[in-house]
Specification:
Elements: H1 18-25, H2 47-57, E1 63-64, E2 67-68, H3 74-78, H4 84-102, H5 107-121, H6 127-151, H7 156-165
Antiparallel strand pairs: 1-2
C-alpha cells in the first residue's frame, strides 16, 4: 500500500549526467562550474536534511491512511522519525525518479514502488514514517524534474545512464 501523499512539485549541454541533475536539483552547482563527473551530491552537502525538515513542517498537508496527517510535533522536529541516512536514500531515489520522468522512463514501478515496499517490509516503518519518506522522495523528484527541464530535452546518452541506475535495489546493510 503506497500512501496518497503525492505533491506536484538554463543551462544548455548536449548531454547531462544524472549526477549533474542531482547537483542542480540541490542547487549546488552553477552552469559554468560543472565538473566532468560530479558526485551524485556534492561533498559535505546534505540537501536531504532540509528537504526532510520541509516535509516534516508540511505533514498536515499529507494523508495518513484515510485522514490528514497530524502536524509534526516539537519532538518530531527535534528528532525526526526518519534518520539522516534514510532521508538521503529517499532524496537520492527521488532524484532518479525525477530524471526518469523527464526522460520518459517509468520511475514509479521501477524505483518508487519497490522502494516504498522495502521501507514497509524490510525496514518495518510505520505509516507516518512511510508518508515522510514518500514526501522526501517527491520533493526531490520535483526538484530534479525542474532542473532537467531547464536543461532541455533528454539525450539518448542521458536516458541510457538513468535507465541503468533506475531500478531500486536495497542498500547494503550498514
Amino acid at each position: 500500500m503506497v500512501p496518497d501523499h503525492r505533491r506536484k512539485y538554463a543551462l544548455r549541454r548536449p548531454v547531462i549526467t544524472l549526477a549533474l541533475a542531482a547537483s542542480l536539483a540541490a542547487g549546488l552547482v552553477g552552469g559554468a562550474a560543472v565538473a566532468a563527473n560530479p558526485p551524485l551530491v556534492a561533498p559535505n552537502a546534505t540537501p536531504w536534511i532540509g528537504v526532510r525538515a520541509k516535509a516534516l513542517q508540511g505533514m498536515s498537508n499529507f494523508t495518513c491512511g484515510s485522514m490528514p496527517c497530524a502536524a509534526a510535533t516539537d519532538a518530531e522536529l527535534a528528532h525526526p522519525p526518519v534518520s539522516d541516512a534514510e532521508a538521503q536514500i529517499a532524496y537520492q531515489r527521488g532524484v532518479y525518479s525525477g530524471a526518469a520522468e523527464h526522460c520518459g522512463l517509468d520511475g514509479q514501478s521501477r524505483n518508487y514502488a519497490p522502494m516504498m515496499t522495502w521501507w514497509q517490509t524490510a525496514r518495518h516503518m510505520n505509516g507516518r514514517q512511510i508518508v515522510l519518506v514518500g514526501a522526501i522522495h517527491d520533493i526531490a523528484k520535483g526538484m530534479a524534474k525542474a532542473a532537467m527541464a531547464r536543461i532541455g530535452p533528454c539525450s539518448a546518452e542521458t536516458k541510457a545512464d538513468i535507465d541503468r541506475r533506475l531500478d531500486f535495489r536495497p542498500p547494503a546493510s550498514r
